[in-house]
Amino acid sequence: MAKEKKRSVSCHCFFLLTAKCCWLLTSMQKTEAQEHAHSIRLEGDIILGGLFPVHARGERGVACGELKKEKGIHRLEAMLYAIDQINKDPDLLPNVTLGVRILDTCSRDTYALEQSLTFVQALIEKDASDVRCANGDPPIFTKPDKIIGVIGASASSVSIMVANILRLFKIPQISYASTAPELSDNTRYDFFSRVVPPDSYQAQAMVDIVTAMGWNYVSTLASEGNYGESGVEAFIQISRESGGVCIAQSLKIPREPKPGEFDKIILRLLETSNARAVIMFANEDDIRRVLNAAKRNNQTGHFLWVGSDSWGSKIAPVVQQEKVAEGAVTILPKRASVDGFDRYFRSRSLANNRRNVWFAEFWEENFECKLGSHAKKLGSLKKCTGLEKIGRDSTYEQEGKVQFVIDAVYAMAHALHRMHKELCTGYIGLCPRMSSIDGKELLSYIRAVNFNVGSAGTPVIFNENGDAPGRYDIFQYQITNRSTAEYKVIGHWTDQLHLNLDAMRWTRGDPSIPASVCSVPCKPGERKKIVKGVPCCWHCERCEGYHYQANEFSCELCPYEQRPSENRTGCQPIPIIKLEWHSPWAIVPVFISMLGIIATTFVIVTFVRYNDTPIVRASGRELSYVLLTGIFLCYAITFLMIATPDMAVCSFRRIFLGLGMCFSYAALLTKTNRIHRIFEQGKKSVTAPKFISPASQLVITFSLISFQLLGVFIWFAVDPPHTIVDFGEQRTQDPENARGVLKCDISDLSLICSLGYSILLMVTCTVYAIKTRGVPETFNEAKPIGFTMYTTCIIWLAFIPIFFGTAQSAERMYIQTTTLTISMSLSASVSLGMLYMPKVYIIIFHPEQNVQKRKRSFKAVVTAATMSSKLTQKGSDRPNGEVKTELCESLETNMNERKKSQMSEKYFNMLI
């Protein structure tokens, strides 16, 4: 410094490229004062430049603002500490001393550009031929320091501005804090390197953090400039590629914010209140002012801040606004505290640190006192004694980027050491080849640096673009006991995220992660209907009917035999049911059937026991047993219809479904046909008709039955019996009630065809019953048969609409099965009750009537029947008086004969 004061300088001339630029300084003393007031200079064999934000950006057109204690002084002293350590190290650059020229950037890129011109003075060609001082004398130039490399700058916007001029003069630059992805462009910033990872890694880490939190709707906030804008751009690009995060708003903080600007930013962020998470790529000053604005607008606890490494674990942005910053998640390149620097810095005092021209100002700020009448601090502050001690009389915590400053200085030193080792082999001190270091050659050594004593405990290396690998620690700002707030490490990122969600705490210590989503996640079984243009906003629509949630955006129809699961996230088999024995639909027909079977069995046993009695023989024993068999089968089919369907049950159903009715109505048809033929024949002659013997009646009956069996066997051949599960029968609108019905593969048409022949026999029998209705009941049982058939027809006429009218009902299986079985049981009961119960009653309770009667010739029977028929006909054609007269006349002629044959008529009537 003394040597500098002795140098007389009339003017300094700087020439950039081909332009000649000269600032004529009128006073040497003024020039030196201005220069040294904003720079630190240490002599050395090799001079390194340094750029640090010692002061904040000034307001209202002022270049520099308030002092930055941590970001400025700590980092600056870290460079001085590293230079001291290297100069004392006998193994690193032995016999070579490093010097420095450190400048204040005042956190402003344009001001930093002006300051950085100092680094290129020695490389500018000076042409003094046209320059004369005021008195006409030629100018006297001060020999400038030759800067071979620069450490810095801090802000990316400053580094970009400075890198543009340093590359013109091939001066390598190593930054300790600039992370803008733009600086990775090796074609534009080929002389730029950094010991911190670029924001492209940081942006990826922040996207991973947001994704891990389950946040898909966030806002971004960036300080105007390369760092903020590039960081946000990288975040938006990565989030767009990943597809899981949407940007609600992307706001920018101006370089020169107007009054109220930050309040407007908070209000803008509140316009999308669901986007509570705010991704911040902003400088320290802007972060502090954003938090303050949120506090003023009573938004404490609303915003979920995610800060970049410019926030990191710094105290300055959150001082006196701890609650509004609570829960903030921040990221910082992986680092470790440098214990040696702590000892060094705590030992600094006004007496032993005169080389730092800003240390006195720091002293005042740090201890809140003033130094003399020229102190920077104004007001009624106490006077500094100079005996204060850092860390004892003030709080001290090592600034987060200190280790990276040290790494940057050591990276430059290791590059110079290797360069010296190769170019100056065996030479003590600087050899001639290194007296004028070529910047491009030095850059190649810098890019090849690889040493394992980095301050963070990891190797210091550079890739082909001059970037350091991505290693980050993740912090959360937590208030632990309502009073103490601190940054806690909750994870790290090295190519992928490792986050301890259990260690996170939010407002009031709540461990549950707050939401920052445009739309709440859809419930299971609901699909997302995306709002056009905003992929993170959607409406939830439930999958209806038999649809399930195939993925988050679509519902698909379950296979026909399946239904949606309870939460509609998949399909499950539809339960298969059958008619159970304990069901009311089964209990009633089974009860009726059992009564019918008991009654039928009782009648059969009675007839067998009294087989040779007149009343049994007169009933036509052979056809009676056939008819009773049919009645028994009609009752028994109920059990087959309710039994669990399988191949055997389905086979028996096909055989016996129509067989019982076929037995019954074939026998009745044979009986009625016989009666009709007898009396029709009697009208023509006294000769008995053919085929009226019991054997003939059996042949006719079984011939009729054989057609039913033939049809069944053809059905077996064409369509073998098998079971099916009918999922359509009980496919209700509500899938919960859907059931598959286990049943035999018998369609309604097949069922009608199976019963159709029996119904045809029944109708034919009814026709004959109508034709023989005029036969006196004393001659035959035509009238009971007629009543049986009329009732049966009514039953089956009622059956048809019930059976087919319930085809679309969910209870179809139960209704149709119950209707069919009850109808068959009722038909059998009518036949049994009208045709056989009177006879059983006589056999059991009036055996005196069950006696042999005198037989009469067929001729007498026919004559009597014919006479009865004629009388009936005349009775219907004439008035009552006339009929009665003619009847009397006819009867008087044959009175004697009728009296003789009355007993034989009754007996014959029993036989037929």
Provide the β-strand percentage band.
15-25%
Number of helices: 27
**Overall average residue pLDDT:** 82
- Walk across the major sheet and give the strand order: 12-11-13-14-15-20-21-22
Poorly predicted ranges: 1-36, 871-912
Q: Distance N terminus to C terminus?
A: 153 Å
Transmembrane segments: 585-611, 623-645, 651-670, 691-718, 749-770, 782-804, 824-846
GO cellular component, one term: plasma membrane
Keywords: Cell membrane, Disulfide bond, G-protein coupled receptor, Glycoprotein, Membrane, Receptor, Signal, Transducer, Transmembrane, Transmembrane helix
Main location: membrane
Question: Any overview of this molecule?
Answer:
The structure is a single chain. This protein has 912 residues and is of the alpha/beta class. The protein is 45% helix and 16% strand. The strands form ten sheets. It has an eight-stranded mixed β-sheet with strand order 12-11-13-14-15-20-21-22, with helices on both faces. The protein has a six-stranded mixed β-sheet with strand order 3-7-4-8-9-10, with helices on both faces. Strand 25 (547-551) and strand 26 (554-557) form a beta hairpin. The termini are far apart.
